[in-house]
Amino acid sequence: MASTDNLTGLSNSRSFYLDLGNEILRSIRYKHVFSLSYIDIDNFKSINDSIGHLKGDELLISVARCLISSLRKTDIIARLGGDEFAVIFPETSQEEVKSAFAKASEELKYRMRKNKWQVSFSVGIVTFETLPMDIKEAMKIADELMYSVKNNKKNDVAFKVWQGKA
Question: The domain that contains 41 carries what CATH number?
Answer without folding.
Answer: 3.30.70.270
